[in-house]
Amino acid sequence: MLQKEANIKVKNKMPNTEKPTTIVQQKKSGIVDTPKKKEKINMPVQKEKKIVSPKVEEDAEVENAKKPEEKQKPIQKKSKVKRDYAVVNAKSVPISTKHSMAICRFIKGKTIEKAIKDLEPVLIKKVAVPMKGEIPHRKGKMMSGRYPQKAVGHFITLLKSLEANAAVNELDEPVIVEAIANLAPRPFGRFGKTKKKRTHVRLKCVEKKEDKKKKNRGNKR
Fold it and tell me: Per the structure, how many domains does the chain have?
């Protein structure tokens, strides 16, 4: 019995020579060597030299020589053609055609400044625009007239734009020669019960010129 116990103790003291099978056992025993990270070595990179033929170099030199000559050329600006008249065309203006025709008659033959001055008191209902037809009488030298405030407001804006166009064409004391109002296509209102008011307006002005006959008459006297 004593021999058997001694043999068992000797076996327990002997080192384990068996190799661990699993990776976990290998890590515990310290057999597995973890791979170390490889250090990057920054090597100098050599750039490839482009081989340029002598003909290409000559062409590039010629182009570079031409570029400054092209920049030195003066830029020619297109000159605007000045006219002897100024025009304003307004299409589908939301005003009454009958009122606009009366205003055109009221304006025609006047200078732009005078036309604006005559239309401004209409907005305050101090001066009435003379009209034709079954319209009530108004005070003044007229049979009948009205105060078309909406139409007059649109006409004042058109006259101001006409004045600006005349200034561009360098016209001194422009006089309104043409003032035309035509019926425009009228769109239907809601549910197609009514038609809305639309008018085309054209205004044209020319530089004021003194009559030669009046000058000659003055010289004869």
Answer: 1
